[in-house]
């Protein structure tokens, strides 16, 4: 019940306080912020209200907070409340007095400075207009000193004076002559003679009934004032009124606000007149001045330029407006200048200046009104604090002092509560620290990685059981003082030191290194390091916590997996290449076999001569044997790899086997124009225990490869016996292309030649050397190789020999066998009567001689004219004008269709087709390939081929593929 009454009383108090604060603020506001803009006035009103009501609100807030304290809290006593209220009330009173005093002083200071700046503006306006009077008086002196000022004299004077520059705001200066209406014609005649043929009198207004004209005779600079030259200023009211007033008064006279005819921008302007009188005649009265009058000198002036920059005299703290009248009327405004430019138009419209002033200025016989107002630049120059800042500062100071008094009064009670709270917190912190230490110790001892605590030099301070295992130590004491660097090879010191430095710098560090245990075990360690000491304070102990893991087995497994994957990828790629090459190697002889079989089987070819039939049969046999050899190589390799290859061990004469192989390989050697011979360099055993068939197979492969890869020169077989190793060595030396070290490393792998270009250039499966090496190993020997690029290669077969009697030897001989023959020539084929390709010209690119004869025979039989080349390079050269690969294509092309094998030496069919298409060839290109793998068709078409035919050759399909591009067939398709 007591609490409810207290709360009700507090609410009533606060409501009354708010109303009282608002009332007092409303009374003080005119004194504190007189004529302030609306927004600052509102801020000031709210600030005053908060300043007055704030102490009561704060006091009651403290009281309510005290009621919510626990039962142990002591109630607030008068010793605490009384000083608080005294300070609050005194501070509010002093702040209010200071605010009112500063507002009054600031207002007075502002008014004084505003009046001073306004006076400077007034003086500046008078000074600028007086400057024009000086110019007019000087010009009047020129006319009064001369009886007649000629046009040339007037121009010379103006060039010296330069009125536009000397009198800012003036567009020039001139002379006006009064001409009676009766003298108009005589004046025009004089003017055309003295002023210019194009001179004429122009009217400036609508006054036509006057007796005289006020004509502008001279005006300079003329190019800027040509519109005013010859103007009758007396034909317009304001101009005439000011001109007549200038005669009567003899003083400089301004017109009212007018639009100058020479000002194309239509700025506010006026004319400044000064009457010119005859020298020596009296001019004291208006009548005397009328009699002595000669004319006027004048200046056309734009008010914007004349008064431009006048606000600079007030340091841009005032806004200035000038009116040509005693009343302020927008239509009479001559000039408007603002010292402050608002970015927001709305802010400019709502701004109310603190001060403004209006005063008249007599200029040229007219009353100008100058209106001056202050702007935000002027407001910002106050040397006093703004009232709102005074209130804020006073309120803040009052609240601060009151809070200190309040805090000092209640410090004992809060100190007791704080001590009790700190005791509880310390106990809780101690319990948490003990629990954390136990938890860390458990983790440290049981974590499954080696954890070591090191100093910044890498010395061991502590380690867990797993760390002892890595160090191969029996106790922690054994490691105390030891450095981790002692167990690491020198090449790993830099990485470990860098990791420790990174940890000291506050970064998580990680590295790998080899570590040698105390018992000599070498391990690969992965280490993570973090700093656990305080490195920011001098003298603090810095420790590095490291976690080390043995990754020896992990890295070994990763390396093994990586190597296995690499081997698998290499094997997969090698076998894919082998399958592609094997397809070509098998289908190429099959093409010749099946094609020549078709020739022999046809009835209409019975008239072919016996010699030609035998050649067909020999071709079939030769290609069949080659195909059988390929199949045998594949089967032999399969047996060898499966471990099922067996060999005999029977007495074998080495010289006989070598002689047989030479006789077998002589045809290939002679066909290439190579010399093939054999020598016995040292005495060799006459008979050894060996398998003669496998020995012959090895030699056939070695000698066959030597012939294949040798273009010119010779192939030599050398036999010797090496007594230290008790082995027979048979070397096959050629003068061929040679090999690099990298090529020799790959040479004895299955399905591999030195590189893919070898396969395209020389053919072959890549099985021969692999089979030969494995057979040599099965026979108890080996094959080694030495080679030099461009010089040649030497393959050496070594066979171990058992005990040999002294009489069982063959003596050395220089020439075991030498064969040099010339390959036989072949006759051409006859043509058939059936000619579906009649009239077609076909260019055939094929490197196989048998296939060339067969395909040419079929095409010629069908009526085509066939020209053959051996590779893609010759094909492209045949199609160009200059016979080079880079030349332009012949137009028209030398053939109707190109038929090309896709696997050829020098340049294959893919590259040739692509090159022809790049040159712009549009003739049909038919692809001919022995590859039968998936994707071959797309590969040929992507290269630019028009059609596709496979080997072995099917005559009908071949002819059909070519016939599609017969000019007659294509013409029919077009129609």
UniProtKB/TrEMBL annotation:
Residue span(s) of domain Histidine kinase: 581-803
SUPFAM superfamilies: ATPase domain of HSP90 chaperone/DNA topoisomerase II/histidine kinase, CheY-like, Homodimeric domain of signal transducing histidine kinase, PYP-like sensor domain (PAS domain)
Sequence ranges assigned to domain PAC in this UniProt record: 509-563
GO CC field: plasma membrane
SMART domains named in the record: CHASE (SM01079), HATPase_c (SM00387), HisKA (SM00388), PAS (SM00091), REC (SM00448)
Residue span, Response regulatory domain: 841-966
Protein's name in the database: histidine kinase
Organism: Blastopirellula marina
Phylogenetic placement of the source organism: Bacteria, Pseudomonadati, Planctomycetota, Planctomycetia, Pirellulales
């Amino acid at each position: 019940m007591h609490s409810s009454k207290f709360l009700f009383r507090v609410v009533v108090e606060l409501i009354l306080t708010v109303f009282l604060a608002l009332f007092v603020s409303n009374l003080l506001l005119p004194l504190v912020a007189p004529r302030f803009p609306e927004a600052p006035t509102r801020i000031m009103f709210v600030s005053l209200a908060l300043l007055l009501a704030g102490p009561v609100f704060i006091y009651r807030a403290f009281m309510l907070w005290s009621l919510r304290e626990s039962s142990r809290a002591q109630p607030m006593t008068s010793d605490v409340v009384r000083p608080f209220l005294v300070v609050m009330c005194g501070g509010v009173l002093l702040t209010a007095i200071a605010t009112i005093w500063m507002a009054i002083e600031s207002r007075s200071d502002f008014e004084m400075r505003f009046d001073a700046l306004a006076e400077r503006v007034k003086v500046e306006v008078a000074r600028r207009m007086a400057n024009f009077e000086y110019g007019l008086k000087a010009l009047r002196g020129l006319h009064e000193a001369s009886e007649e000022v000629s046009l040339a004299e007037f121009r010379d004077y103006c060039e010296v004076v330069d009125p536009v520059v000397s009198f800012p705001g003036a567009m020039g200066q001139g002379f006006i002559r009064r001409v009676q209406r009766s003298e108009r014609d005589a004046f025009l005649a004089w003017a055309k003679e003295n002023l210019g043929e194009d001179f004429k009198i122009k009217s400036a207004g609508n006054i036509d009934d006057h007796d005289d004209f006020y004509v502008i005779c001279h005006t300079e600079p003329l190019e800027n004032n040509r519109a005013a030259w010859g103007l009758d200023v007396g034909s317009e009211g304001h101009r005439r009124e000011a001109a007549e007033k200038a005669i009567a008064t003899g003083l400089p006279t301004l017109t009212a606000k007018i639009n100058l005819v020479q000002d194309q921008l239509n700025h506010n302007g006026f004319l400044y007149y000064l009457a010119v009188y005859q020298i020596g005649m009296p001019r004291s009265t208006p009548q005397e001045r009328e009699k002595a009058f000669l004319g006027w000198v004048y200046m056309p002036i734009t008010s914007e330029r004349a008064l431009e920059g006048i606000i600079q005299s007030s340091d841009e703290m005032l806004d200035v407006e000038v009116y040509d009248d005693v009343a302020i009327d927008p239509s009479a405004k001559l000039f408007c200048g603002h010292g402050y430019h608002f970015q927001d138009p709305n802010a400019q419209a709502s701004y109310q200046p603190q001060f403004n002033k209006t005063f008249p200025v007599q200029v040229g016989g007219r009353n100008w009104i100058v209106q001056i107002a202050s702007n935000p630049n002027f407001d910002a120059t106050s040397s006093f604090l703004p009232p709102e800042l005074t209130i804020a500062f006073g309120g803040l100071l009052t609240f601060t002092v009151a809070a200190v008094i309040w805090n000092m009064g209640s410090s004992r009670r809060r100190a007791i509560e704080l001590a009790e709270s700190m005791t509880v917190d310390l106990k809780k912190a101690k319990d948490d620290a003990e629990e954390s230490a136990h938890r860390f110790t458990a983790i440290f001892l049981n974590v499954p990685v080696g954890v070591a605590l090191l100093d910044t030099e890498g010395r061991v301070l502590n380690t867990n059981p797993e760390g002892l295992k890595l160090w191969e130590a029996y106790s922690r004491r054994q490691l105390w003082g030891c450095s981790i660097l002692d167990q690491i090879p020198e090449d790993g010191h830099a990485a470990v030191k860098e990791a420790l430095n990174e940890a000291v710098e506050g970064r998580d560090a990680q590295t790998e290194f080899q570590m040698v245990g105390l018992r000599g075990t070498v391990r690969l360690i992965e280490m993570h390091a973090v700093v656990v000491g305080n490195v920011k304070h001098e003298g603090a102990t810095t420790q590095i916590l490291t976690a080390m893991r043995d990754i020896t087995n992990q890295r070994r497994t990763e390396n093994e997996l990586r190597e296995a994957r690499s081997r698998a990828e290499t094997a997969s790629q090698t076998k894919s290449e082998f399958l592609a090459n094997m397809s070509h190697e098998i289908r190429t002889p099959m093409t010749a076999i099946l094609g020549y079989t078709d020739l022999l089987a046809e009835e209409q070819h019975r008239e072919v001569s016996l010699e030609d039939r035998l050649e067909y049969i020999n071709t079939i046999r030769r290609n069949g044997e080659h195909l059988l050899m390929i199949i045998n190589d594949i089967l032999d390799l399969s047996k060898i790899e499966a471990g099922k290859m067996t060999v005999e061990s029977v007495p074998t004469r080495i010289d006989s086997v070598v002689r047989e192989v030479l006789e077998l390989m002589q045809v290939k050697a002679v066909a290439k124009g190579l010399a093939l011979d054999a020598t016995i360099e040292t005495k060799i055993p006459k008979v050894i225990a060996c398998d003669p068939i496998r020995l012959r197979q090895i030699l056939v492969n070695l000698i066959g490869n030597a012939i294949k890869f040798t273009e010119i020169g010779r192939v030599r077989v050398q036999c010797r016996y090496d007594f230290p190793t008790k082995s027979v060595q048979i070397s096959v030396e050629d003068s061929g292309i040679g090999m690099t070290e990298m090529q020799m490393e790959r040479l004895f792998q299955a399905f591999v030649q030195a590189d893919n270009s070898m396969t395209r250039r020389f053919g072959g499966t890549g099985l021969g050397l692999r089979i030969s090496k494995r057979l040599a190993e099965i026979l108890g020997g080996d094959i080694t190789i030495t080679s030099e690029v461009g010089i040649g290669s030497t393959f050496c077969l070594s066979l171990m020999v058992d005990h040999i009697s002294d009489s069982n030897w063959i003596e050395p001989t220089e020439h075991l066998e030498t064969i040099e023959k010339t390959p036989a020539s072949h006759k051409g084929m006859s043509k058939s009567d059936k000619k579906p390709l009649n009239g077609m010209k076909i260019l055939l690119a094929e490197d196989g001689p048998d296939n060339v004869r067969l395909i040419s025979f079929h095409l010629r039989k069908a009526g085509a004219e066939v020209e053959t080349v051996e590779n893609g390079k010759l094909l492209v050269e045949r199609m160009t004008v200059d016979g080079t690969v880079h030349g332009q294509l012949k137009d028209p092309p030398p053939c109707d269709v190109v038929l090309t094998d896709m696997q050829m030496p020098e340049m294959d069919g893919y590259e040739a087709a692509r090159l022809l298409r790049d040159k712009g060839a549009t003739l049909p290109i038919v692809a001919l390939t022995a590859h039968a793998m998936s994707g071959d068709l797309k590969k040929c078409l992507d290269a630019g081929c028009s059609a596709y035919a496979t080997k072995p050759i099917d005559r009908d399909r071949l002819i059909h593929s070519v016939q599609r591009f017969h000019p007659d067939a294509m013409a029919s398709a077009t129609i």
